[in-house]
């Protein structure tokens, strides 16, 4: 019993997959056809590529270092509806009990008229901007400001000619510090996916 030897069967041999030479040649030929077709479709011009390297450099840099995350400023933002006509206009929202509030002297005005935008409850002594947003969703800066020591603001704006009848005015106040968020490019790409 002491001299008894235990033998275990050898593990089965793993078969090796060998690629035949004609399979490799066929694969290389297919890749060459795809490459030539892509070259013709995209109409690559090597001479133009060399002379326009300054235009290509940002594209290559962005491919090597994709824009996925970005540091964005911390913001306090309040949006109120605004309209050119009272018909179908959104009602003015009730002011929140705490936090920043934004009010308009009138929620309905025509282009060329003036309105007064008042805000309170914002961070004191901080820069900010007013933004027009038209009915299509396009935005444009209307004016910039700095809140006072109590965190209030008061600006008179001339109503601009905007697309559609129903719009919004947003007050954005920039706070100290920054936040790491998905970049605009990443948001657009993932939204499309």
Top keywords for this entry?
single chain, 193 residues, alpha+beta, 3-stranded antiparallel sheet, elongated
Number of strands: 7
SSE succession: HHHEEEEEEEH
Decide which structural class fits the backbone.
alpha+beta
Distance between the termini: 69 Å
- Total helical segments: 4
Major sheet characteristics: 4 strands, antiparallel
Low-confidence stretches: none
Summed over residues and divided by their number, the pLDDT gives a mean of: 83
The spatial strand order of the largest sheet comes to: 1-7-4-5
Strand content: 25-35%
Radius of gyration: 32 Å
Overview of the molecule:
- The radius of gyration is 32 Å and the shape is elongated.
- It is built from 4 helices and 7 strands; from the N terminus they run H-H-H-E-E-E-E-E-E-E-H.
- The strands form 2 sheets. A 4-stranded antiparallel β-sheet has the order 1-7-4-5, covered by helices on one side. Strands 2-3-6 form a 3-stranded antiparallel β-sheet, with no helix packed on it.
- The protein is α+β, with helices and mostly antiparallel strands and 193 residues long.
């Amino acid at each position: 019993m002491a001299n008894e030897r235990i033998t275990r069967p050898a593990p089965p041999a793993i078969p090796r997959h060998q690629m035949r030479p004609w399979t490799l040649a066929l694969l290389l030929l297919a890749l060459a056809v795809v490459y030539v077709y892509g070259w013709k479709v995209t109409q690559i011009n090597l001479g133009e590529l060399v002379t326009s390297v300054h235009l290509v450099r940002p594209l290559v840099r962005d491919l090597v270092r994709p824009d996925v995350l970005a540091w964005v400023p911390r913001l306090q933002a309040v949006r109120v509806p605004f309209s050119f006509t009272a018909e179908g206009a959104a009602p003015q929202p009730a002011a929140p009990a705490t936090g920043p509030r934004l009010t308009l002297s009138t929620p309905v005005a025509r282009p060329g008229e003036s309105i007064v935008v008042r805000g309170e409850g914002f961070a004191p002594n901080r820069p900010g901007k007013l933004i027009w947003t038209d009915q299509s969703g396009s935005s444009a800066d209307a004016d910039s400001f700095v809140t006072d020591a109590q965190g209030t603001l008061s600006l008179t704006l001339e109503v601009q000619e905007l697309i559609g009848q129903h719009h919004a005015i947003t007050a954005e106040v920039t706070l100290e510090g920054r936040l790491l968020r998905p970049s605009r490019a990443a948001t657009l790409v993932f939204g499309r996916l």
